[in-house]
Structures are given as structure tokens and as C-alpha cells.
Amino acid sequence: MKLAYFPGCTLKTTAKKLETSALAVAETLGLKIEELPNWNCCGTVYSLASDDLIKQLAPIRNLARAQSFEYKTIVTLCSMCYNTLAQSNILVKNDGEKLKKINEFMSEEEDYRGEVEVKHFLTLFKEFGLENIKKIVKKPLSKLKVACYYGCLLLRPKRIGIDDCEQPHILEELVLSLGAEPVNFPYQVECCGSYHTAVKPEIVAMRAYRILENARENGADLVVTSCPLCYFNLKDRQRDVKRLYAGFKEMPVLYFTEIMADALGIT
Amino acid sequence: MRLVLKSETDVLKKVEEISGQNVFSCYQCGMCSAGCPMSEEMDLLPNQVIRLLQMGAFDEILGSSTVWLCASCYTCRARCPRGVDLARLMEAVRLIVLRKTKDDYIPPARMVKEKLPQIALISALRKFTR
Amino acid sequence: MRVGVFICHCGRNIASVVDVHWLKNEAAKLKNVVFCEDYIYLCSEPGQKFICEKIKELNLTHIIVAACTPSLHGETFSRTLESAGLNRYLLEIANIREQCSWVHQNTPKIATKKALKLIEAALAKLTYAKPLTPLRVPMIRKALVIGGGIAGIQAALDIANGGFEVYLVEKEPSLGGHMAQLSETFPTLDCSSCILTPKMVEVAHHKNIHLFTYAEVKNIEGTVGNFEVTILKKPRYVWEDKCTGCNDCVDVCPVIVPNEFDQGLGARKAIYIPFPQAVPLVYTIDLENCLNSKKLIVCENCFKACGPRAIDFLMEEEEVKIKVGAIIVATGYDLIPLEALPEYGGGRYQDVITSLDLERLLSPSGPTGGVIRRPSDGKIPKSIVFIQCAGSRDPEHGRPYCSKICCMYTAKHALLYKHAVPEGKVYIFYIDIRAAGKRYEEFVQRIVEEERVLYLRGKVSKVFRKNEKLVVLGVDTLTGRTVEIETDMVVVAPAIISNNGGKALAQILKTPIDEFGFFTEIHPKLRPVESPAIGIYLAGAAQSPKDISESVAQASAAASKVLALFSQKRIALEPIKAEVDVKLCKGCGICVKTCPFGAIKIIKKKKKKYAQVSKAVCQGCGSCMGACKFRAINVAHFTLKQLFSQVDALLEG
């Protein structure tokens, strides 16, 4: 089965590491992934207004394109892309009227039928089989204590969540299969402050401090995440955290695919 | 100052139309405020925003930072025992404000000047500008 | 006499304070004690079995259990004795928990010594104990139900359907009580009279029910199984057996007065039935408002109009004496008067009304035909402010308790008003919404959500008039903001208070009421429908505020208690009764005056006057024993000799 890979803007720029590592891992696992031709911006944030359908065009156009290339599934790496595509998809699946209107707007595309499935790489790996991944681990990450940070958009709203929104464990299971030890991490689903990083960096720094300290208190050596924005807020904002909180010690933050690549011996 | 309560306002109807939510579904348990990651920074608690909407006191919300601090993290939505999508109500209030004025709430020029992930900038633009 | 002493640890309740091991060794040394042992839980099945086995094995004749209060497990251990073949009155309980370990936690040594003293005292009393046999007297298997509201109706029907005769006494001219005044009931919105009227009719036609309306209980003598009741029938001035309910008298009556049934919002004549579905359908002349008096007849309109000649101005009140074996009190409730709540403008502004007033305005048979019109000008209000907890949960100005039904009926009122006036606005001031009942919370939330009712969390400080409107000042503590609302009508939910006739009735029944006039139950959890006076049961809001379903449930519970009592033809009474020593008695009569139950009479036999106790009436309280100067009266099981020995043992050493 062919899978369309939807990268999104950030994966091609600031989060290149995420894309490179993820695609390398997918190749190692033998997953057939092809970048969706001609993709456009996912819309970034899902529109929460009932009265401006125009904001649903960007995500639905991507889905329509996947359909026209006969992909049944579109997979994403970025949490924001995943959330926006998945929520828009559900909106039109449940509301034929809205789907019809959106299709009318996009006369240059073939009509989207609401049948493409939006999936995140984590789900894909889980379906591949964590036991299978365990078998091909070359350098087990023994003794590495990992705090798995999910953030918001992979889990909420519930109807698109890839796991339980209060007590997720898909990342922990993956980490275990790599030979590492996931730590208890109560702040793993707390928001990092998201786009406020662009307007109120100090608030985000305060959020990051709390989340990272919570990981540290629980004995984590590092934090892994899947979202480029969470990654930035937790990693790059540590500069600001240090200014705000004297004595704060840096905490390594990595994409989950980076530690996967390590364990699978991909260089 | 005493709040003078009047019959329902048109702006409340607009908020409910945009959000698709019935503000009277909320019974003010405060679950949204308890779990909101931003509530410490807010001048009105999230549940108070709904409360003021129920009371038809929209003007009281306009001067507040709360709707702008909401990051649409959906924690409140996931936990609300009455199924109220507060994130949508927050969005509706933001949109009503942005659609009325000629100014952005935070113009791009006032956003941080460092290298950010694209999704950070674009979301901020989507939430704070017209 | 071979005494066995059993000491209970009560888990850690006793054993953590009292040194039970020492106690066991010391108690074993006491006179006549042939066996003494301690045990972790004597009230448990194995604990009781242990006592039973030791009685048989060692031929014990008297037993002391040192444990908790006899009011908790007295019955348990009495049964243990019986199962071992001993008379249950050869048991003494030394209360070493409530009277010892619990109150002397910090002084375990002294507590241990006291525990031994208590055992010694029990032994002293037990030394003079005699085996007793319960008295068995015939039981009158008929019941009296006082109050003809929904609780009384349900209780009467249940007992009557169980095959026993019931006397149902209602002070108003019709059955129905407050439920007859209600429009619709929460949470199902059943029409109140539609579900009540069939039951009223069933009462009227039931062959086992004797219905007395417009009547009151004047006096009650006797005890369970044998109550003598005097019922006072007030004169209706209309013969019940002749009146056909044709209404001809009402048409010609010239006097118009406010109708109490309509909360004074509608009118009736001086000859009237309170409402069209009244049971019995018999007219009553209200002589206070009638132009006539007993002495002077100036108007004969009704008399002349009455075809069957049912009207009789010479009718007198009548006393009826009946005998019953059990009594159910179902006298219902009243509302705190609006005048007691001056901040809400009650009694001052016509458009400030009570929730019960609103029921009449909502009722299709009410004064406005079910159209909500405000009293001042008959206009349909465009908005209503409801004020809950008016006098409830307010120990300073009203009552400390929650009136329990107001949250639900206010939600119902909001719904009924919104159905009638869809564009109308409803504001409800509340402290908490208490909707604990089957489908109650869902009902309230549905109304808030669908009818967009604004609940304001807080109290109202003032209601005043401004032109044709009422201004309500209050607070919403959820936002921390004071609020002001201009409205057309204010509906107050007054505290539910006990029926104002309840106090007098309690005295007649010799059964306790609490400080608010509600009838008290024996145990709030485990015996909630029994009054402490045996044979008297409680149903409905006479006990505490209740809604209809709770009142009905309690009425059926009380009825089932009565039916259980009536399942036997004779009743067993505790043999703990006063006994007169004729040789010592001088017939002075002090005991007659002291007895709260009227059980003692002075009789003369062979030229000698002395006191005689009716065993069926005596409750064994001991008042007479304490009052008798000649020590001529003893209460069995608590004789003077037993009590003095007990006290001596305590004071010794």
C-alpha cells in the first residue's frame, strides 16, 4: 500500500532533522513512503469558526490531492499538520454540505470524497509492530531515561487523538522497544505555550521551565517530542529559561525519530 | 460597578453562531480554569469568560487578555464535563474583535525577531492579525 | 448464681485504652463469677457463638457483657441469651466503650479501673435480676392516619389495601393537601391533579377507609395496639350525606372572599368547595365570612337554593371516638411567610409572590386559568427573577436547613414559564443547585441549556419598585460582580417550615418534635419512619422537607410498618412495667400526677386506697418510682433494690 508523506513547511526548514531521521527510519523499516506531489500549507491552525469555510480549503486541498494520486493514507510528522489535516478531514466527513461547498471552491481539483485517512508516523510505527522494531534494534539505548513529551495536538481534541489524551503511552512503548527506559512524566500533555513563542516568549519560557523541570524531577536524561514547535519551545527557549531561573541546567531535547535512528544504527 | 443585566445581546448570538456552542451548557464547575496552562497569566479565568457571556456582559470580556492568551491547546475541551468547546468560544470572541476593528491585535511588526519555526509565525499571524 | 463475664475489645475501640487482660483477671475474682474471658468482637457471629457455648458448657445462669452501649447491641446479646436457653432479662451490659474508653482516651489506667467498677456495678444489679416474660395484649388492627395530603393518602390506601380499616383525618374541607395546589410535578412534568385526583377518589370510595375531612384529632390516649382517639368534626353547616355538589348554593351566595386554596390570588364564596376536584364534593360554609351567625340568620339564599335541603345552620361540632392500634402522622408543611423576608419586598409589593402562588398561576384550574399574570395589573411578565433559599440555609433569619424541594420546583417553574412565554427572560438566584434525585440533575441542566435560564450564584440584597417594574439588586459570586436586574415579577422560594398545627398534635401524641417543629424519628438512618413513641409512624414533610416521590415512598414505608404490626392479633409488650406494692402504697396519688402516659389510677378496695397501673399503658419510664415517697412502686428490671446496689457498687472503695 502506498503512503503519501505530507511534510509541511517546517519539516523542510527548521525541522529538517525530524524529516531526515524519520524518513531514514521508515526506509529501514521498509515502509513505502512517497512525498505527496504538489503539497501546500496545511493551514497551520485548524479554524475553530463555523462561519469561514475558506480556512478549510488549505487542508482539504492536500487531501484532495492525495486522493487524486490514489493514496488512501496521508502520513505526517508535524503535530500541527497532523491536527489540522485530521480535524478538517473529520469536519467534511461528517458534513456533506460543507464538503460540497469546499469542493465548489476548488474547481481546479477533483472533488474530495472524504475517504483519505490522516495518520501520524507514530501510529504508523506502532502498526508496523513494536516487537518488530525491537528485533532490528542494533544499539539498544540501555540505561537511557527518556521523558516522552506529547504536547497538545497529537492527542486533542479526542476524536483525532492518536492515543489517550490524559495518559498516553504510544511514545513510551516505542522508547521501551528501543531499549531505553521511559520515566513518569506528569507534564507530558501540558501545553508548551505554542505560538505565543512569537509574541510572548517569556510565557513560553515559563511553561518550558515547568515541563523540563518536571522531566528532570522524574530522573529523565532527555526529552523526546514529535512536534517542531514543541521542540523549539522546549529546546531553544532554554536560553530564556536560563535568564529567568538562575541555576537552571540545560535538558537535552530530541525528536523521537532521532533516538530511533540511533538505536537502529542509522548514521 | 454593578452589572446591569439585560435580555440577551446580539453579540452573544454571534458568539454562539461562530463557535457552534451553547454558553448555557456550561454549569461553571471551573474544570477549564483548573487545567488551563495559561490561567495564571490571565486576568479573567476561562470559566469567567463563559460566565460573562452567559450574563450578556460582552464588554467585560473585551478589555481582558484571556481570550488572547488561549493557545487552543484543547485541554479544556477534552475535560469539560458538559462537552462545551471553550476553545471555539475563545476563537469566536477573538474573531468578533478582529472583524470589528481595523487593527491587528498584535501586528507582525511587534512579533519576535528571531528565527522561529514557520508554524509558530503563521499560527501567531492567524490568531492575532486580521 | 453462676455468672459469666464477657469483655469485648471492640477492635481497638476499647482494647487500645482499657487493659482488657488485667480487667479479665480482676473480673474473674468477683463473687459468683465462674467464667471471664475477653474477645475481639463479641457482637460478631463467632463472638455470640462463643457466649452461647460457654453458657451451655459451664451452666452459666447470669451474663455480663462489657462492651458498647446497650442501645446498640442490647438486643443482640439478649437474643444470644435466649438462643442458649436463658431468660433475656438475666443479662447486664457494662458500657465500657461510650462511658469509658471513648471518654478517657488519655488516662488508660484510670479507664481500666473504671471499667472494672462498671462491671462490678453491673454484677450488683444483676444479683437481684429476675427472669421476666413479655406481656401479650390484644391489638386493635385499625389505623389512624392524620393528614390527607399525598403522604396520608398513600399510607391510608396501602393499609386499606392490606385489608385493615383506616381512619383518615384531614383538617381542610378536601383531601389533597399541597399537592392539589401544584400545577405540574418535576422532573416528569406530570400534571399534579391528574395523578393525585384518582387517589383521592379511591380513598373516598374505599370500603376500608373512613374519611373525616374538616376534622381534627383532639385527643389520644393509650399505647401501641390500643390507642383511643377523639376526633373533632368541625361543622360544615352542610350535611355530607345530603349534599350533591350541584353548585346551586354557590351561585346565589352574595359573599366573595379570597380563596385560600388559590393562595388568595382567586376568589370564592362564603359557601364553597376549595377546588373543583375536591373530595368529598361537599360544600362548606365559612361562617366567619358568611352574613349569618349562629345567633342571627339574615341571608337564606343558599338555604333556599339547596334542593336536597343539605344546609343546616344549627349544625354543631361533633366528637367521634375511635380505637386504633397504630397511628401515622402525615401533617405536611407550611411556608415561611413572605413578611419574614423583608429584603425581598414580600408583603409590600404585589408582584413579589411565593413559589406556591406561582403554582396556582400556572395551574389550568387556578385563578388565571393557567395564564401567568402578575397580581398588580394582570399583565403577563416579560421577565421573572426567582430567589431561592429565601429563609432556608439561613440560621440567622430563617431556618438553618435546606428546604430540599425549591431547587427542583424553581427549575420547573422556569421551564413552565418559558413554555408559556418563550421570549421571556428568567433569572434565578441560588446558592447551590441541589438536584440529588433520579433524573433531577439532568432535568435542571436540560432547562438551563435549552431554555437559556441564567442562574446567578448568590443572594439578593434588595427588591424595590421602580415605576411598573421591580428592581432586584444581588450578586453573582462566580464573577465576583454585583448585579442589577429590572424585572416584571419576583418569585420567592420560601423556607419550608413545619405545619403550624404540628406542635399541638405532638403534645396530643406525646411524641417528640425537633426545635423546628418537625416530628422526630427514632433513628434517622435505620428507623426513619418510626417515631420514638411505639406505634406512631411518620410520613412526608411532617418529618422534614420532602418532595412528592420521597413522601410517597415514606408513606408506603410507614404503611408497611403498620401492616407488619397488624400481622399479629396480639402485641408483645416489654415487661418492664411499674408494679405497686399494695402493702406500702398509701394511695396519695403523686404517681398519678407524675405519670406522663396516664397509666396509673387510684382505686379503692376493701376500704383501702391504692395505686393501680395499667400494664398496657405503662411505658416503664420510672417517673412514678422516683416520685413515690413510700417506695411503693418498682419498675421491673430496674427495681429500687437493683439500682441502689448498682450505685453502691460504683461508690464503693
Write the layout of secondary structure elements.
The complex is a heterotrimer of chains A (267), B (130) and C (653).
Chain A: E1 3-6, H1 16-29, E2 33-35, H2 57-68, E3 73-76, H3 79-94, H4 96-105, E4 117-120, H5 121-128, H6 130-136, E5 145-148, H7 170-177, E6 181-182, H8 201-217, E7 222-225, H9 228-236, H10 238-244, E8 253-255, H11 256-263
Parallel strand pairs in A: 1-2, 1-3, 3-4, 5-6, 5-7, 7-8
Chain B: E1 3-5, H1 10-19, H2 31-35, H3 46-54, H4 58-62, H5 66-69, H6 75-79, H7 86-100, H8 118-128
Helix pairs in contact in B: 1-7
Chain C: E1 3-8, H1 20-28, E2 33-39, H2 45-58, E3 62-67, H3 70-83, E4 91-95, H4 97-101, H5 108-127, E5 135-138, E6 142-146, H6 150-161, E7 165-169, E8 184-185, E9 190-191, H7 192-205, E10 209-212, E11 215-223, E12 226-233, H8 248-252, E13 256-258, E14 267-269, E15 271-272, E16 284-285, H9 301-305, E17 318-324, E18 326-329, E19 333-335, E20 352-354, H10 355-362, E21 383-390, H11 406-420, E22 425-430, H12 440-451, E23 454-457, E24 460-466, E25 469-476, E26 481-487, E27 489-494, E28 496-498, H13 502-509, E29 536-538, H14 548-566, E30 570-573, E31 578-580, H15 590-594, E32 600-605, E33 608-613, H16 623-627, E34 633-635, H17 640-651
Parallel strand pairs in C: 1-2, 1-3, 3-4, 6-7, 6-18, 7-10, 18-29, 20-27, 21-22, 21-27, 22-23
Antiparallel strand pairs in C: 5-30, 8-9, 11-12, 12-17, 13-14, 15-16, 19-28, 24-25, 25-26, 31-34, 32-33
Helix pairs in contact in C: 1-5, 2-3, 5-17, 6-7, 6-14, 10-11, 11-12
